[in-house]
Amino acid sequence: MIPEILSSQRIKSWASEIGFQDCGIARARVLTEAERDFRHSIENDYHADMHYLERNIGNRFNPESLLQGCKSVIVVTYNYLTDSEPKSDKYRTARYTWIQDYHILVKNLLEQLADNIVNNCPSVKYRVTVDSSAISEKRWAMEAGVGYMGKNGLIHNQHGSFFVIGVLLVDRFCDEYDQSLPKSDCGDCEICVKSCPVNALATPFQMDARRCVSYHNTEDKCPNYSELALQKYAFGCDVCQEVCPRNKKKNANPLNISKNSLFLLLKNDDLETLSETEFKRYFSDTSILRRKYARFRSLIEAKRQQEHLCRMEPQEIIQYATKVLNEEAESVSKLTSYLDENFVKAVQEIMNCKGRVIVTGIGKSAIIGQKIVGTFNSTGTPAVFMHAADAVHGDLGIVQKDDIVVCLSKSGNTPEISVLIPFLKANGNILVAIVGTMDSMLAKEAHIVLNCTVSREASPNNLAPTSSAMAQLAIGDALASTLIKMRGFTTEDFAKVHPGGILGRRTRLKVLDLYKQNEVPSVGVEASMQEIILEISGKCLGVTAVVEDEKVVGAITDGDLRRAIQHHAEIMSLKAKDIMTRKPKTIHENTLAVDALQMMKQHHITNIFVVDDDGSYKGVIHIHDIIKEGIY
């Protein structure tokens, strides 16, 4: 007996009457390509801690794993946009929570659709699934032509993306199947990618749950409430959807307000004082109830604390910042009591090291380590930074037998550090630990241990590495500074390794490097006023030297010219010798530019003539020549 073939048109008509936004039908098959993409996502850990996604991956893309003999996959979408807004503006939730829990709502509506099919074809077998079974509903939505995979999830050209998906599997063929839609119709648009507050959409067409706000405030079993408090949404997240151009079209058929959830009537204060009983009452029909009252309460409290900090009065801000600095200063001050023979030994070993100092760490300790390396290198101690995570994946080749390894870690028990220790010992390297936990594995295994224990962090929740990072930095500076003293490292030595810095320029830049850039204005003692004016004006330095036998015997500035005009009626009859300043200041060409600047400041002049060993005139420098080199 030939099984009945279902009418696709009739199914779609029923779906529309029931209230579904769209309905598409695909022929059941194994979605091999979709499975390959999903496995790639799992391998890259984009699913975060949702380990249930790792189980029975093959079944997700084979509808027969849920319904034996499945022939057709009916996919419906349900629009959840409403014509109402929540009263609370501080504790915003994703729009799908504003209606009855879609798991229940859409499932019930799908059961109605299934009943219609069964009434028309009593022998049909079916299975309903709404975000609760091992099936890739988004990929089947693409297959059934009711959406395509955009850069921020499933989307539809006409309806946008504010909809949920339901799937009805049946063991009958349909008389017509819909054409699948392409992966993307987003083009070059990246508004959603750039708008994501946590950069969770950075990988094309792949949401990284490890970063996603919605994952952390709904699925994450151990969320960081302090970080979540900084985000706009308290439950779910619609940022990438709100900015999508496809969602800017006005919805012609918003849901009636009667379908809105009761909690939308609650104001900010109401949510902050909500008891567990009230929580169950107001959220009883929503998806939020699934996440329990304790989670809801913790996030509300975290956001309230964050709001209080954001609203601190100016004096409170100063007081709190002072408290942080005092706590960090106290932590650093206590380090003096930890200085012992280990510190002496560390300095001596580094001083006598025939290789380099390899500094390693992970997390914030790695950042402090990079700064310590910079200080070592700039003060005569060759050093290289090696990230502990990279080291265990190939970078250990950096470490040579004569090198000393300095390892920074607050806990001293991180897995990456634990892997490093056996290698370093087998390689014969001296291991110096800058560690905050003296009973840690690193402290026990290191050859030299520098204690940088702090009683607590300066951050409000005692979590962010503040005092501990400052302690590590201070120990590194103490090592570097002691080595500077022992090496007799001078200002000149420092300048040699800082040729591009201000100190480098101050200790190497000479007058001869500057005057050659300028014209060489000069006139003789018998020069006429016309010659003098043309020389000063033509050489653009506001001054000319008066030269006799290659020696500077006078100076004439544009100021001298103005004064001559004021005091002499027959100005054009004057000669250079009549108005020049005799015995002007000169400076040797090998003098440092910084000394020339000091000379100009001392004598309140802006130009100075340059001479060589014989006192012969070579040129002139202006104070601006020095200042533009960054020396002042």
Keywords:
3 domains, CBS-domain, 27 helices, alpha/beta, 4-stranded antiparallel sheet, single chain, Rossmann fold, NADH Oxidase, 632 residues
Report on the structure:
37% of the residues are buried. The N and C termini lie far apart (100 Å). The protein has 632 residues and is of the alpha/beta class. Strand 9 (357-361), helix 15 (364-378) and strand 10 (383-387) form a beta-alpha-beta unit. The chain has 3 domains: 8-195, NADH Oxidase; 337-489, 3-Layer(aba) Sandwich (Rossmann fold), CATH 3.40.50.10490; 508-627, CBS-domain, CATH 3.10.580.10. It contains 27 helices and 20 strands. Helix 13 packs across helix 19 (467-487) and helix 15 (364-378) runs parallel beside helix 19 (467-487). A 5-stranded parallel sheet has the order 10-9-11-12-13, sandwiched between helices. A 4-stranded antiparallel sheet has the order 1-2-7-4, sandwiched between helices. A 4-stranded mixed sheet has the order 14-15-16-17.
Level-2 CATH architecture of the largest domain: 3-Layer(aba) Sandwich
Low-confidence stretches: none
- Integer average pLDDT: 87
Radius of gyration, CA atoms, in whole angstroms: 39 Å
Helix fraction by DSSP (H/I, runs of at least 4):
25-40%
What is this entry, summarized?
By secondary structure, the protein is an alpha/beta fold.
